[in-house]
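Lecture notes, part 5. Sequence design as translation. It can be helpful to think of inverse folding as translation between two languages: the language of shapes and the language of residues. The source text, in structure tokens, appears below.
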């Protein structure tokens, strides 16, 4: 009986948070959805596809008869480079989103402060409630942008580490002479 009430209250809280933060918080919500969709895609890749990719690249290398010539070394570099591109996948986009989130939050700060200055220009400094809504619209997007960026830092770091480790292991396992 309490669960539906709590769900309704939490949805109301989220709606109020978005309304208090203004349109920039809505933009950050859309950016968060995109970022976490890409993070889940990379997680799915790492868990279910990465090992198979590395095995396929290794099998392509092992199927070659020549491993020591200059041409064989270029083929090895190409195979590793192609694997690195697939391992990176959407990681550069995720990194760009993480770096951009605080800037989007600062955009909200600027728009919120403009609201405060508009209230001060029209009504003077006597209307604290109207000024408080502008201050709220200024601080909530900044908070949201920072929290969103912080939540993306660990997955980016982890994916970078796994990509480097996988590439290094692939390079080490591809024996260059028989």
């Amino acid at each position: 009986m309490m669960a539906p009430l709590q769900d309704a209250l939490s949805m109301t809280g989220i709606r109020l948070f978005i309304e208090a933060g203004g349109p920039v918080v809505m933009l950050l919500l859309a950016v968060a959805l995109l970022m976490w969709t890409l993070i889940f895609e990379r997680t799915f890749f790492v868990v279910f596809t990465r090992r198979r990719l590395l095995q396929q690249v290794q099998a392509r290398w092992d199927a070659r008869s020549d491993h020591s010539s200059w041409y064989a070394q270029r083929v090895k570099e190409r195979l590793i480079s192609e694997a690195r591109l697939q391992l990176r996948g959407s990681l550069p986009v995720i990194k760009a989103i993480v770096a951009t989130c605080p800037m989007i939050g600062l955009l909200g700060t600027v728009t919120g402060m403009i609201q405060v200055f508009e209230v001060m220009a029209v009504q003077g400094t006597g209307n604290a409630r109207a000024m408080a809504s502008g201050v709220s619209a200024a601080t909530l997007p900044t908070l949201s942008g920072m929290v969103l960026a912080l939540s993306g830092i660990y997955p980016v770091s982890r994916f970078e580490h796994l990509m480097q480790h996988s590439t290094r292991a692939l390079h080490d396992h591809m024996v260059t002479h028989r």
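The translated text above is only one of many valid answers, since several sequences can fold into similar shapes. The chain is about 90% helix and 0% strand.
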